[in-house]
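Progress report, Aim 2. The chain analyzed during this reporting quarter is listed below.
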Amino acid sequence: MSRRTAVWVHGPAAALACWGLGYTLWHGISAPRTALAFGVLIAAGEAVRRVPAHPVGSAPDLPHLPHALNSAEARVPSMRRPPTSSGRSPRAASALPGLREGAPLGAAGALGYALLGEAGGRPAAHGVPQTVAVVVAAGLVGLVPYLARGGGPVLDPFARRVLTVGFAATCCQPLYGAMALPAWAAAGPVRPFFLAVLLALTALCDAVLAAALARARTGWPYGPLLRDELRALPGIGTAICATGVVIALAVAVAGLWALPVFCLPLLLTQIAFRRYAGVRATYRQTIASLARATEIAGCTPPGHARRVAGLSRAVGRELGLGGPDLDVLEHAALMHDIGQLSLVDPVPDGATAPLPPAEQRRIALLGGAVARQTGAPPAVAVIVERQADPYREQPVTARIVRTVNAYDDLVAGAAGPAGRLRALERLRLATARDHEPRVVEALARVLARGGRAG
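Predicted structure tokens for the chain:
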């Protein structure tokens, strides 16, 4: 099913690209100066595409969990180099709103060319095939320096770009050819409104395609993936659509000189988002380093916090949590044992379950206080400080951390699949008091699939 979904996206994109290139080569290029100017803009936007980064403890860190838990490297999955995936990385599924589009300048240029009807008062008349051909050729040229900088495969976003631009051009270019859209524009603000609505539909199509490809690649639930994509649209996605409309309208009046003028704000926005992403990446590394303090102090086994964080994120995906909730869940899982630093004598293997309830509660409250001091979101501190509460009184994120933490403690000395099955069986037997059955079964499904949510 997953491969079939990817084929249903990549196949039409490849067919559309071949048709556009073949038709353009056979019939020649209309308005070559305009095509060259937009091609340079699209290529430049792809060349400066943001290289995606994977988060610490995210789902791709657990590709072979049930088959390799006996090795030390597999026991610390987040320390392995995450596998590269095509298109948007799993980080994208949990990225901050507005960080999903890696090449906003190229996307805006492609949409602007798809919506372009005139250049400097003269009809552009390039049509749908040439629009697709210019976007494909310029995109391929621009991806060369991106891949040379170490960027991962980009088959998924490139296929989406071709399909969405083809959709926008198909809806718009025939109207220019029939002189219908210019006639509407002369009667009032119909043309800008039409272009805005068209780009909204195009963005929606892109979100649907992105979620489908992410589902095909990762096996994660489609609903939360689509919700994350739609949540990202008000970010830089809105700036891309607005810039595409402005480019098409401005070039129609002022000519090609409008391209650098109206692309500059989007370029500055892209730089600002990159800096913001860098700040967030530094924050994530700080949380991960703080989580290692319990390991350095001998309170928890090596890699325990990272294992719990990675597996908790996968279980959260399995239960349908979205990007913001997954980020909170991951940060809380990394810091769930930080309160053990207050203990004079470390608990053997960091397992606090045998301690008296009052001591468990004290450790959890101290951990929550530390989380608040780090500047983490309040939800992170709440998850940490409620680890000692009855599971029926906990939020679902705290229940996930509680169950995954118990599982990692139980398999610490286990060897082979039998030990993991015994750990799951013990969790199932404790569902009456300590663990929510739904979370335990989600954990079992994730482990059966190799540590990936589905």
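Strands lie at 118-119, 122-123. The radius of gyration is 26 Å. These observations will guide the mutagenesis work planned for the next reporting period.
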